[in-house]
Q: What sequence folds into this?
């Protein structure tokens, strides 16, 4: 990659340079960690249903950095919560504007399963969304488990509060790690997301049969099935044929900044585009 002064720096060297939690904390405090948005598209209609909110680091020396360079430093619960809060605060501003002009998009935020065990997590989140003026039912939390989650009283209370207020839970990276069928029995998910690495092999014979089974499972449980990492038209058509509801990936849209997302959303709405320019 190129630095701002035109000199090249290897990914390994840059990771080593940034390998400091204090530097990440500073970046979070100074809002250098910014949201990028990747649209999720309905496979049947090609309509944008919502966006996943992803982290990027707007570094003063190295430019825009992907999570590859810093996400491994978000290694404890406090940092996970700070990252989530940083992206949520910025994402809600764009979400509120889109809602104010009649765009009903679901914004999906990634959380670690351990955050569901934090005292007061759900109540604080509901309050923040309400304060922003965004409908609660337009927020989805994509839950990833890096370690097994104990469903203690605090966790159950948080989940109950989220569901009561209309927020949705998505089981991220389904089929990997702790994101298993057992979790579908334990928690009230409304969506499951197929892992991008599995989607990359989705046209294989065994993978095809597995996706057919997962699609049938999703239908039987009234869950939306989303494929991540779709990169080709062939993958798109194959997944739709197998019963996948929606997808995201480079075939549709790369992650983009808020201003670009607005242009994409309003591209086929001349009146709203005119009002935005005025």
A:
């Amino acid at each position: 990659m190129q630095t701002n002064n035109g000199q090249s720096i290897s990914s390994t060297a840059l990771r080593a340079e940034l390998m400091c939690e204090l530097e990440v904390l500073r970046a979070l405090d100074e809002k250098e960690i910014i949201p990028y948005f990747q649209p999720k598209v309905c496979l049947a209609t090609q309509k944008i249903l919502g966006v996943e909110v992803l982290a990027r680091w707007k570094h003063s020396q190295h430019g825009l950095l992907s999570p590859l360079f810093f996400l491994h430093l978000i290694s404890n619960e406090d940092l996970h919560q700070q990252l989530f809060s940083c992206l949520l605060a910025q994402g809600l501003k764009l979400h509120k504007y889109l809602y104010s002009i009649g765009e009903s998009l679901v914004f999906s935020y990634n959380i670690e399963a351990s955050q569901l065990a934090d005292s007061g997590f759900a109540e604080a989140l509901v309050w923040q969304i309400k304060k922003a003026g965004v409908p609660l039912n337009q927020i989805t939390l994509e839950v990833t488990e890096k370690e097994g989650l104990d469903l203690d009283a605090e966790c159950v209370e948080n989940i109950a509060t989220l569901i009561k207020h209309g927020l949705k839970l998505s089981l991220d990276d389904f089929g990997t790690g702790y994101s298993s069928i057992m979790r579908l029995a334990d928690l009230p998910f409304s969506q499951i997301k197929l892992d991008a690495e599995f989607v990359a092999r989705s046209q294989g014979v065994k993978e095809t049969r597995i996706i057919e089974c997962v699609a049938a499972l999703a239908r039987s449980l009234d869950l939306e099935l989303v494929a991540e990492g779709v990169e080709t038209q062939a993958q798109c058509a194959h997944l739709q044929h197998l019963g996948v509801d929606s997808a995201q990936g480079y075939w549709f849209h790369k992650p983009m900044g808020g201003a670009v997302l607005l242009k994409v959303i309003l591209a086929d709405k001349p009146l709203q585009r005119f009002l935005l320019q005025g």
